[in-house]
Amino acid sequence: ELADYDRIVQPEVKKKSKPSEVSDDQTYSREKLAKALGTSPTVVQRATQLLADNGIYFDKDVKGRYIYDDQDKDFFASVLAYKRSEGVTLSKAIEQFIQPGEDD
């Protein structure tokens, strides 16, 4: 019974003990965003770097780690969906979203 109790209570405790950086929107660490998107943190990091190379930057927390919001999550989801559906590289998929219409 105690093990069941721990499983039920622990997530609640973790949520309450973690201070929220932004009160309005959900924020994601690289790992949480990767999990939400069903990909690896490495892919999120690579996409973040490719976007930074093109002048698109994300917020950072007090420790200097990238934080992402729901809008960022939706953007990454679109890029990854395009990458999968078109069979292109991550770099090419990102190019389509930041410079759309050049090939059309």
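the 2nd protein, sequnce then structure:
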Amino acid sequence: MNLRLFSMLHRFGLIATPLVLVAITILSLLPPSGAVTQSWFTVLGDKWGHFLAYAALGFSMFCAIAKNPCQQGCDHTWRRVVRINRWRMVSLFLFILSIGVIIEFVQPLFGRGFEILDIVADGLGGITGIMVGTIAVMIAEHFESRRGEQR
């Protein structure tokens, strides 16, 4: 089975993105339960949850929309991956941030509170996920090119 690593990342992104987005939406809009108290689930823990969820969203979405750097010559530096995908990265970050802002504004309708630090954690998580996705694309293309040279 000769699957390309970039294609596998792309397929992963296409499958994981809707699942992560639905999970974020459902978990963000569920009414708060009385079982979880503020002393148990600290504010920092809440922000880490936002950070990790939006990092997963940023990673999966970047894998789904990233352009293959080998289509324009195989220079496997992070600068080349960023240069080829820079507008996708900016658009993706703005999209992820807008999702976080919209959810925060809708949460009071579901008995939850609006917190600006949640938006900050969402944005930082999105940036981190996009950066990790950039590294994954670069590594995948590096190994693909080395496999091609060995043939």
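The chain has a mean pLDDT of 83. Helices lie at 5-29, 43-65, 78-106, 116-149.
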